[in-house]
Amino acid sequence: MNNNTKAIRSSGWRTDMLIGFPDGLLLLLFTTQVLYSKELSVDSFYLIHLFILGVATLLMMIAVFRANRGDDEDGTMSPEERAKLQNLDISRPTIEQIAMEMERDQQIWEKTLQEENVELRSYGLGHALKSALATGLFFLLGGSLTFLPYLASEDFSFASKVSLSISLIALLIFAYLKSRITGQRAIRTSLRYLATGGLVILASYLISIAI
């Protein structure tokens, strides 16, 4: 991947949706399922999740903007990074192992981009800002779908069931859209997102009973 096309995302709103929407939905699905049964006031529950959604959206937008900058780094260990590790008295075999892991991660990432049919284009400030904003909006939309039932009803036990149903339906619709956009098999994509949602729900349940 040469530096002239180093921006790793660029196929427009479709890519922004593929990245932002499921992350927002799954994050709020996790946090709401963990906290809805806890002894929190309604206002505290709302404030906590609005804060989480706002901060996470901002961080997502920053990450997307940085990803679109087209930095000169190619995902492998630079001479400067190698020198810093050597100054920390880290052995040469360990440094080489770290370098190999970084190179392997970069190869996996580039393969993922190819599998997801993400088109690359050279960096542009306008495109980077637009992509960051669009991804943030899709992230916010995903999180809002999960959170709105709690705003509509202060019976959080009931709202939790509605939120869970909406989230799973939204994941299925998203999986179908993603399969159409990327050319992947709809059933396999749907099962993958249902499994991901199931793992998030399981993790939230285990953490909820542990705290």
Automatic annotation (TrEMBL):
Compartments in which it is found: Endomembrane system
Coiled coil: none
Protein name: VIT family protein
GO cellular component assignments: endomembrane system
Membrane topology term: Multi-pass membrane protein
Glycoprotein recorded as keyword: no
GO MF term list: manganese ion transmembrane transporter activity
Keywords: Membrane, Transmembrane, Transmembrane helix
